[in-house]
TrEMBL record:
It comes from Eucalyptus globulus. Residues 5-250 form the NAD-dependent epimerase/dehydratase domain. The keyword Oxidoreductase applies. Keywords: NADP, Oxidoreductase. Gene3D superfamilies: NAD(P)-binding Rossmann-like Domain (3.40.50.720). The keyword Oxidoreductase applies. It comes from the Eukaryota. This is NAD-dependent epimerase/dehydratase domain-containing protein. InterPro entries: Epimerase_deHydtase, NAD(P)-bd_dom_sf, NAD(P)_dehydrat-like.
Length: 299
């Protein structure tokens, strides 16, 4: 008997690759946010044998009944849908927190009622790493949780939304005995299946344009040369399947592949696309670092 798997947020960057992977292996149901259905889902119907293997539902994360109807009869649920801001947030509660937290709890409640076998929830490394109280000599792993008060103070609403949604999910599954695995990916890059630029890929676009800091905090182009953890979207989709198919998988897993400093990322982008602006201060910072290294080598 073929399993039927529900994938939420099927029009999004990560979820579209998850849908493709499910489609390549088995029959599935796919749930997507109602307001994005017509704009993003035409290409899903172009998959081979889509008419037999794919069924799209109009569903809203805040509409429990629509989610319940879509999840009914599914063996598993791959919950990927969650709001990701591509610009500054004006109303965090409405734009991020409520859809992320209430939406996730609605999905999990529907899973409990439908008696699905397993849920894989795509959280974020943001729900892990932002914790200034974590011991400096201790590696941040899956036991680390974002510090809520720190995120409120720094207005990191996305990180807070992922932390609140995942911690709420842990409480619900513990109370109801639901089998859930969380995947926490780093900054996700990779090829598109969707027709629009998603928020994480917009980071690359803004780096090329030299306007990244105006994207994140309405400031200038000043940018620290911080270390960034990144992962390919296809690897995230593969991690979701591993979380679903491996019976020994449990709790949460960090999904990351590379660590790169901002300067090095800009250098890589410039080597591929040289005719763009780029953040000038990052370029200058890189020159200073290279000159310093040359001086040290000469000692």
């Amino acid at each position: 008997m073929e399993e039927r798997v529900c994938v939420t947020g099927a029009g999004g960057f990560i979820a579209s690759w998850v849908v493709k992977g499910v489609h390549d292996n088995q029959n599935f149901y796919c749930v997507s946010p109602l307001q994005r259905l017509h704009r993003k889902h035409d290409r899903l119907n172009k998959f081979e044998n889509a008419s037999e293997n794919l069924k799209l539902f109009e569903a809203d994360l805040l509409d429990y009944d629509s989610l319940r109807a879509a999840i009914e009869g599914c063996t598993g649920v791959l919950h990927v849908a969650s709001p990701v801001p591509s610009s500054s947030i004006q109303n965090p509660e409405i734009e991020l927190l409520d859809p992320a937290v209430t939406g996730t709890l609605n999905v999990l409640k529907a899973c409990c009622e439908a008696k699905v076998k397993r849920v894989v929830y795509v959280s974020s490394i943001s729900a892990i790493v932002m914790n200034p109280m974590w011991p400096k000599k201790r590696v941040k792993d899956e036991t680390c949780w974002l510090d809520k008060e720190y995120c409120i103070t720094t207005k990191n609403w996305y990180g807070l939304s992922k932390r609140e949604a995942e911690s709420g999910a842990v409480k619900l599954v513990n109370e109801n005995g639901l089998d859930k695995v969380s995947i926490c990916p780093a900054l996700v890059f990779g090829p598109f299946l969707q027709p629009t630029v998603n928020a994480s890929s917009l980071v690359l676009v803004k780096l090329i344009e030299g306007t990244y800091m105006r994207l994140v905090d309405d400031g200038n182009d000043s940018m620290p040369n911080k270390l960034r953890n990144i992962v390919d979207v296809r690897d995230v989709a593969a991690a979701v399947f591993l979380g679903y198919e491996n019976p020994e998988a449990e709790e949460r897993y960090i999904c990351t592949a590379h660590a790169i400093k901002t300067c090095d990322l800009v250098v890589k982008l410039r080597s591929l696309y040289p005719n763009y602006s780029y953040p000038q201060n990052v370029v200058q910072m890189l020159h200073l670092e290279l000159n310093l290294c040359d001086s040290l080598h000469g000692l």
